[in-house]
Amino acid sequence: MKATGTTETKNTTIKVTLNREVQDEISYADGYNIKTGEKVHEMVEVKLTVKANGTTRTTTGKVNDMPFLNIYTAEQRQARNIPSQAYARFGDSAISEEIYNAIIALINKLDAEIGTVDGQKEIETAEKIAVEKQAIENAAIEAEITARNNHSGWCNKCESYCYGDCKS
Length: 168
What we know:
Layout: E1 2-8, E2 12-29, E3 32-50, E4 56-61, H1 74-80, E5 88-90, E6 93-95, H2 97-114, H3 120-150
Antiparallel strand pairs: 1-2, 2-3, 3-4, 5-6
């Protein structure tokens, strides 16, 4: 599902396109295209157009991982000699806090408008179950390693130095 929204600030027109769909995940393995299951793909495209001269800047990225839209820290401003009115990075340039907030508000609005797509809840539930199962398995492995490392070495079952891994 695709949604597009536009908003304006005093000097800039902002257009955001959000695309969310369930697609087959494909692993390209030495000439073979192997389907590895379905996955929710999200992509956002942000286009800024300066009203005064018509200059347009566009950048794209994933909705929950937007390195193209990062807020500058005080250390980054100082180290890179970035002006104080530059609030966040937009692609290779900087934007003000007003534009950043307008972009985020528009992304949130489009996200709520699209909601969930067919099959998304099932995929997210399956991923959550897989993560929980992996956490349980990791905890069991960690407990086994801890027990083995805490073992003194002498086994009362087999009366030798088996470190507790014997089957006696």
